[in-house]
Each structure stands twice: as structure tokens, then as C-alpha cells.
Amino acid sequence: MKYARCALIAVLSAVILISAGCISQEQYEDMAAQNRIQQAKIDRLEGRINAVETSRAQLEKQLATLRDQSSVQSAATAEEIAALEAAIEEKNSMIATLREHLLASGIKLPMELSAMLEDFAKDNPMVTFDKESGKLKFKSDLLFELGSDKVAASAVGSIRALSDIMKTDEAKNFDVIIAGHTDDVPIGKPETRAKHPTNWHLSVHRAISVLNAMVKNGVKPTRLSVRGFGEFRPLAPNAPNKKGNAVNRRVEMFIVYKGA
Description:
Number of strands: 5
Helix content: 55-70%
Oligomer: single chain
Structural class: alpha+beta
Number of domains: 2
Largest sheet: 5 strands, mixed
């Protein structure tokens, strides 16, 4: 599987470093054990996704057969079709949730790439990097102008630096998923609402702005994708009466194996 290949890259990198005397055998064995645990978790999630997709395909086949055989639908047939459609929608929701868990589980990045991203985060106060999941987190208050999807002038250099990392040989086998988030403060100004009717729109538009900036800096668009979650994936409770919370205003970037 694609995730397994990524884990193999990390292990091979460790073997090379052992040969060069950069890490100890004990460190290598610890890293290999962590990779095995992470890979087992990924395998379980992928297995569940495959099982649900198989079940969904069976339901879709039943639905197609029922529709073909029913030129004139009785009330009972209509109810059966509605039940199948509801079951398929439930499977779709389940698959989406499992894929979210798969994404959140992350993968161990090759050590060279992980080190680059760690250094990048250390040099950029607006960024944090979780090497366990391959996730970068940008603070939206520093990345964008207030209530806007325009990348702040002070953040242009940070996105350029990240783009340069993603163009290296160490990162060539990885894609970037860009996810925008807001807090629960409603869109206030009429001119802002005209462009971003809801926080959902704003979160997606901000993710697209980051994508466009990375493309402008030479990252191939085929390696980038976006998502927007609006106010619905908070990291911490928002203040009462829709007063928001700065920690929830963020853009997350997941470094994932190509094609994930």
C-alpha cells in the first residue's frame, strides 16, 4: 500500500544513517518499532474503509437492480428504494469519517524531510510542526489579514520557504492537503459577506489562497488539494456568545504520500 511504501522509505533512511554512524542501533530499533505500530494502525483503518466500500457497492447494485425492475413503482418499492438510498448515504458518511481518522493518524516522514520541516517551524513563529503526523499548523491571525483570504505580506516569505522544501528531492514523493479552519465569530461586514457568506466559505477560500501561493512558488498543482471546515473542528472551546477563540483560527497542512 502507498502508506507502507512511505514507512519503508523511513526505515531505509534509518539504515543508511546507522551505516554512517549518525544514529545508534537502539535508536533505529525504536524508530522501526514506532513505524510498525503506526503502519498497523493505518492498515486497520484502510481495512475498515475497504470493507465499508464493499458494502456500499453491494447496496448500490441492489438499488440499481430494483430501479431497473420497477418500471412502475409501488409504495412498497418506493420505500425500499428510499431505505437503500439512506443506507448508501450512511456508508458514505462512515467512509468520510474513516478517511478523516486515516488522515489524522499521519505517517512517519523520512527523517531528512521531517528535519527540514522542523527547522522551518522553528524559524517561523506562526507555524508549528507535529513530526508524528506530518502536520503543519499556521496561525490564521498571522497568515491572513483580518476577515480576509488574502495572504498577509508578512507571511509570503514563510509560504515561499515551505514551497521550496516541497520542491526538494526529499519531498518529491509527497503531496500537501491544505485545510482551513475558523472560529465561530460570524462574518460581520457586508463587503466581507459578499465574498465569504459564511465561515465555511472563508475557511475554504483561505486554503485556496495558500494553494495558489504555493503554485506561484513552483509547487505543482497536482500535488495540492484543499479542504474547509469552517468553525466546526475547533481545537478549544470558543468564548460564549460567538466571541471565538484565536487558537481555532488556523490553516493546517498535512504532508501525505503522493496520491493519498
